[in-house]
Amino acid sequence: MKKLLKGVLGEENLRRVSGRLGGRRSANIKSQKLESEMGMEDSMEDSGGAVMLLPETGLVEFLHNVDEAKEVSLEVHRPVFLMFQEIPGCSVCTDFGKNVLSNEMIRDFIESEFVPCVINNRGTHPVDVEALRMFNEPALNNPVVRFIDDQGNDLIPRKDGVWDALGMLQRMIQAQQAFDAAYKPPMYIRWLVQSLQLEHPLYRHHFETLILTCECYWSGEAVAGAVAGVVSTEAAWMDNSEECVRVVFDTREVSLLELVKQVRDKDPKMGLVPCTRAQETELHRHEYRTLRKRPIAPIKSYKENKYHLKTSGQFTVAQIASLLPQQLARINACIAANEGYVHLLSPTQTLPARTLRTRTLSRRHKQPTNPPQRGEEAETKQEGFEL
């Protein structure tokens, strides 16, 4: 976070707020019992400089004083991610740290777009006690995250029981838009929300699958992956050994007909295999010829799927494993078209492979050297769907 603020504030101003970053007072977020058990007094780092991670706070590096957080918020013009958490806490508290705050993309979003601050609702430190009184928060409670401005005002109404990644991300985006009406979340966060919605029963109906037959699934994946609204692509074989691509798309971003038009504009020979009766009816109504075939198996060879990405030499196996399906599809298309793709990655994903291996162990790698600034426009069109 220090490197991030340096880019925003400059070296001189950073010195004035640098003492507030880096978890300098562990007593604010741990009970005395935990401190004595871990042998810590005033540091959350071991003798080698490695960050001591607490299960309740996940991977996020928090400030521990609301007044300091508000001052930093004023300096960097970002809302405060104010978490009231019981430390050490029950399974709800540790699960929130594990399932939400330990997600690297969510961690990146919190640290790069908010000023993170945690208050221990179990602690007796005067700073914690005063914060609980100021915000009328109960002690010994399950996690509650509030979003405030530099004056301490709530940006959106307080809400209990938001302990899942999708619900928390949706509230984070709402808070940012309340803070700045023109705010648009980074692409990796929009895609993370979309991926979580794909598995959620309330949003699953927005997603459909279409099979595209093609002469070469390498080019087929590149063509389909370039379409805004495509969630994933997968190379496969048809039952007659014809090559094809299985495409999952979000109908809120691209309709069936828009998808077909865009891929056919680039490859007119692509065949259309509808996966539902409704798709078949819609395509026939617009005079598209469909095929009554079905894929029998996906391609098992590692390099055959996302061929351009995996053979480019620009990503390690570990880096590829960290990519969302949307990132895989779009970056594969970008590399095939010789286009840039850095704006599609999270701050952690833009770090060199060697750095990724020590990302959670060393504070000096908390942010990339030149992270994108708040409000920086992406190089490609912003894609919109319901958050």
From TrEMBL:
Top-level division of the source organism's lineage: Eukaryota
Composition bias, Basic residues: 358-367
Region (Disordered): 358-387
Alphabetized InterPro entries for the sequence: Met_Sox_Rdtase_MsrA_sf, Thioredoxin-like_sf
Basic and acidic residues compositional bias, start-end: 374-387
Identification of the protein by name: Uncharacterized protein
Protein species of origin: Durusdinium trenchii
